[in-house]
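Exercise 7. Predict the joint structure of the components listed below.
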Amino acid sequence: MLGWEFPPHISGGLGTACLGLSQGLARCGVDVTFVVPRLNGDEAPDGVRLVAAADVPVPVSKPEPAEVPVRLRHAFTGSRRPRTELDVERVIARTMKLLSVDSPLRPYMTQADYSKRLAELTRLKAMTQPERGSPKTSHEKLEFQGGYGPDLEAEVERYARVVCELVRREDFDVVHAHDWMTYPAGIAAALEGQKPLVVHVHATEYDRSGMNPDPGIRAIEAEGLARADLAVCVSEYTAGVLRDRYGADTRKLRVVHNAVTRGEQREQFHWEKAIDDPVVLFLGRITYQKGPDYFLEAAARVLRVVPDARFVLSGTGDMWPRVVERAAQLGIANNTHFTGFLEGVEVERMFAMADIYVMPSVSEPFGISPLEAMALDVPVIVSRQSGVAEVLSNALKVDFWDVEDLANKIIALLTYPELRDELSSEGRQEVEQMTWEERGRTLRGVYEELVV
Amino acid sequence: MTAIVPYFQVHQPFRLKRYTFFDIGRSSGYFDDTENERILRRIAEKCYLPMNELLASLIDRHEGRFRFAMAITGTLLDQLEAWSPEALESFQALARTGCVEIVCETSHHSLAFLEDEDEFEAQVAAQRERIRELFEQDPVTFRCTELVISNAIAKKVESMGFRGLLGEGADHLLGFRSPHKVYRPEGTTDLALLLRTYERSDDIAFRFSNRSWDGWPLTPEKFATSLAEVPEDATLIGLFMDYETFGEHQWRETGIFDFVEAMPGAALEHDHLEFATPAEVIETVEIDEVEELSIPHPVSWADTERDLTAWLGNHMQKAANKALYELGPDVKRAAELGDPECLEDWRKLTTSDHVYYMCTKWFSDGDVHKYFSPYTTPHDAFIAFMNVLADLKARVRNVPRQPTETDSPREQEERPRPETGRARTGR
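Solution:
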């Protein structure tokens, strides 16, 4: 299994899902080797073998002078590809031939730090100087930053090289690649090992960027879908996106919804709400995709009726400045609170303080966070433009653009305690049924279609 | 002889608008007239008119040997008067044939008997009067909303002068007893209980078009044979179902009308079968001689549980029902003080469909509820209903207690107050 992040070091739901799925599979008797770019040493999944690409020695290739290992760049600019002993490397290059290099590529839009990027590029340059006089048979370990830094495209390619090397040493039945960062590696590994390829779509470029997808990333996604034997998507909603926007063959699509692992911190720390005012929570990246602006518009309407309500936005993102300004403009700055990015225990603590959790996403392939809120007894309102809305019965649902309806439902939850009770007690039971083990069983069934 | 007793429940509710919190105090138009009219016209066209015509022709063809009963709710009568007088006339024509018994019930298809006995009596009296007026019959038989029965209801119904009660032949009620016998509910002396034979009724109402059912296709002959197979001493076979089964739940294309057309003839081929109305069955039994049946807990014809959980199962339904009936005295006082519209609006809210829409059982129990609900989710149904109730509450509290008092503007205070100052505990 190929993935880009693994808890606790995650920037979104992807890592959480990877952990859950691989553990769920392990419980269903599937041996999982999970390859991530790098490990920090504090990952501790049950029954899953973790491999850091950074720890795997690969044969040193001898690039021609002036040809940096960021081979992709050559493919795009049309210059001659470096000579290589690995067929798979050609595959990688071909797969990614449409990848744009002008903009830094990140699966999640976070603020680019210019100076950090500069340092990164300098380091990259230093690293790419070929070691003179090193013997042809020697091995080296490649460097991985992990995460989604400015040299992501290079890292995607280095990752693919390592995975190909791993494939030669490991025995396995299926290659399973999570999201576009690992598709080149997955395609190459499946070819190298002559094994079936499953790509897993947790999000598409359209979910991340709306109507302006990065053409390079979109191309990798399309290539992955075309070459995969089966594509697993996290919702019917996403299956629809793949069909409509990528022309994916619907016979290849399988839906495996996400699940949730209930945290136990609440019980340990006995968190209780510290303030009396009702708290309505938005928790997610402050980006176009997540719909924080709709949350604010609804907040303004709610505050006319419930003047002491508190609207909390937890997260960071490129829309953050705009959202802060809009709150001021709407005259609700006093009741709007920004906590910044929250992690792990802090997230649970935030949920513990919330009376309502709102996920007003414009486009959400799945959306695990409402399940986390429900597991902690918090009633949720989710947009119908989300995969999670498909699997939830005990949640209120709104169209993301219908801020009147969202406001109406927030007020209803604050006004009618029976509605809150119904949603929180039934909701907890509902999410308790959604186990990763169950999802692992479904996924095992997908593998069996290919292996048996 | 065994009597086949077809009985059709004919009902439509006044569905609510998507009434939001922001509408409270601003709009007292609670009901979605456009949608209600659209649905009524559609059903009149697909079901009421063709089916009434078909039944009238069957009565003709079999020269009175085909007989049945109907209960038409007051809310539906209102809608027919407003939007389909021709359908109302065809119901009246059926009632005049002498082969159709009109069964009484609450005017608003309510669960009032559980919460408010006076309101129950008032709604029954209103419906009784309307039946006399529109159908020129003095109703003998009673059926509670959704065929709910219990000892208490039976006693009440008997005290109001009815001689028959229709109910569900639920397994857990009957145990080893037969649904084909007439019973006397515990605590009554002169009330005959006629039960629904759910297997045969559901063959038509639920399974008729189900191609994965091993009885499909259900031909009139096959059905008549299954009716003829009842034990020789059977008094009746209760075929009780929604009238909308014909042409609405089971579309014309399924062949349901052809089935209805041929079924009575096929049944009458069997010498020991005849058709009868509930009142006629009651005439044939000696009430002193029938077995007593105890119904300590309410039994209905809904879902697999056959109880009240489809209406009063979850927190939301119980809260909504409680809030609704708590408002009753205020509404009646307002009506006496000169605002009768309040009372009629409130009565329309007592229609049991509103709490039925809030049922969450269909999350696991299939989609029968969902099919009947105008809302996407039961939570939406609850929100709209509670918002409407909040507005009505403000209206009735605002009716001046003394005629001399001038109208004061509606106060913000009358809105439901969002719970603030509340720290959540116990999680």
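Discussion. Residues 265-433 of chain A form a domain with the Rossmann fold fold (CATH 3.40.50.2000).
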